[in-house]
Design brief:
alpha+beta, Ribosomal Protein S4 Delta 41, Chain A, domain 1, Structural Genomics Hypothetical 15.5 Kd Protein In mrcA-pckA Intergenic Region, Chain A, 2 domains, five-stranded antiparallel beta sheet, 7 helices, 5 strands
Length: about 190
């Protein structure tokens, strides 16, 4: 009854036979991704998850490359240690973007001091607290009440005082996204 007269014909947009095809006029030409495409997708997946641009990502890659140990695991550990990621993992913000905004607006204190850099890398033993103003406390309590994710094993949260401590540095097992870091290293090492 609500369909137009066009839906009586084969040109009906609701019941097209190509509805499951990807967009674009040459969708049937799409091929299987090559080696470069697979590596690029893995890199883009990590960049989008942590919300970093190419220049920042390459800085983290350089840091990971210069450090001792496995470069891929170190890269993921560095990205996991970003302050905006830690604030989101603690449940102080609803998303990565909300965590960035909360940090930039001064709602989060690190070791008793205001810090407005979301890209700051936390160290073991750092204390992350919410600013002692009513507005900041209300913002974080609302975010914690919305069903915060379970706290990571490398973080310790005191929900009553809205403080957290970095108990240890994150390892590869603490990174929850399904990504093959070896493909990223191969992509960036070219």
């Amino acid at each position: 009854m609500l369909k137009g007269a066009r839906c009586e014909t084969a040109k009906c947009a609701m019941e097209r036979k190509w509805a499951s095809a990807p967009p674009g006029m040459h969708a049937w030409r799409r091929r299987k991704a090559g080696d470069y495409g697979i590596r690029l997708r893995e890199k883009q997946k990590v960049k989008r998850y942590y919300g970093v641009f190419e220049r920042q990502f390459m800085i983290y890659f350089t840091m990971a490359e210069r450090s001792k140990g496995n470069t891929g695991e170190t890269l993921l550990s560095l990205l996991e240690r970003r302050l905006d990621n830690v604030v989101w993992k603690l449940g102080f913000a609803a998303s990565h973007k909300a965590a960035r905004v909360a940090i930039a607006h001064g709602h989060i204190h690190l070791n008793g001091r205001r810090l407005n850099r979301p890209s700051y890398l936390v160290q073991q033993g750092d204390r992350i607290a919410v600013k002692p103003s009513e507005r900041s406390q209300k913002f974080v309590r609302q975010s914690l009440g919305e069903g915060a994710p379970p706290v990571q094993p490398w973080l310790q949260l005191d929900a009553q005082s809205l403080e957290a401590t970095v108990a240890a540095l994150p390892t590869r097992e603490d990174v929850q996204i399904p990504v093959e870091e070896q493909l990223i290293i191969e992509m960036c090492s070219r």
